[in-house]
Specification:
Distance between the termini: 9 Å
Structural class: alpha/beta
Largest sheet: 7 strands, parallel
Order of helices and strands: EEEEHEEHEEEHEEEH
Number of helices: 4
Length: 240
């Protein structure tokens, strides 16, 4: 399930160039005004019986079509944190390219983090991994994951994996998606195996290089092809 309390976004780094939500060939291209959605209060909304509209024991991907830490959402985020705290029966999954803004509007009672919050940091290149992950690991949070997505080159996450719970990897989707090399993915898988970190190869992306050959993968088959290669190592619930 996805919760989008606000919509609209704009580029943060090279991985945003062909964004499947807001990139040049996407339907939301040019929607860079950040606005609240009608589902802003969805996690705490109740039905006529007084029960939560969203039942418990769910994983709620939060702001996956925008960024939870956008500056335009600083005031709204205070309310979002209150809703997240109220719904301790839901696991909230928050992925960001703006980890440098993590502490802005953070709740006073955050402490070491809320038990029901998974924070993820996107990295697309080695430079961005080395830039973002030290900041990421310096912040107080109980559950962390890294999304190497879109993966644009080989990345060494070894220096950071001892403090990370999970890594997911995806190639770049969209009409102008850049090549993702299977060798880069296998290398990340081996890094995760060595560090005893769960690993999920989520999607090949549009242009997938394997055994020296580049194939164009139908957008509806990118996840299926990744699954067929059977290199993921997951335990318990799949994060998303």
């Amino acid at each position: 399930m996805n919760w989008e309390p606000w919509t609209g976004c704009y580029p943060a780094s090279t991985g945003c160039a062909n964004c499947y939500f807001y990139g040049p060939t996407a339907k939301r291209y040019g929607q860079n005004t950040i606005t609240q959605t009608e589902k802003f209060d969805w996690p705490v909304r109740r039905n006529k019986k007084g029960e939560y509209s969203i039942k418990g024991d769910k994983i709620l991907a939060t702001c996956f079509a925008t960024d939870f830490f956008l500056p335009e959402a600083d005031e709204w985020r205070k309310q979002a944190w209150q809703m997240i705290k109220e719904r301790q029966d839901i696991d909230f999954l928050i992925l960001t390219k703006r980890i440098d803004r993590f502490t802005v509007s953070l709740p006073e009672d955050w402490g070491a983090g809320y038990d029901n919050v998974n924070i993820g940091c996107s990295v697309e290149t080695q430079q961005l991994a080395d830039q973002r992950l030290p900041l990421f690991l310096a912040q107080p949070m109980k559950r962390r994951f890294v999304a190497a997505a879109p993966l644009l080159e080989a990345i060494d996450l070894t220096p950071y994996l001892s403090e990370i719970d999970h890594v997911s990897v995806s190639g770049e989707s969209g009409r102008n998606g850049r090549v993702c090399d299977y060798e880069w993915i296998l290398d990340l898988q081996q890094q995760c195996l060595a560090a005893d970190v769960t690993f999920w190869f989520k999607s090949t992306g549009t242009l997938f290089k394997k055994d020296g050959l580049i194939q164009k993968v139908n957008p509806f088959k990118q996840s299926a092809l990744a699954k067929e290669l059977d290199i993921s190592r997951l335990e318990g619930k799949k994060l998303f």
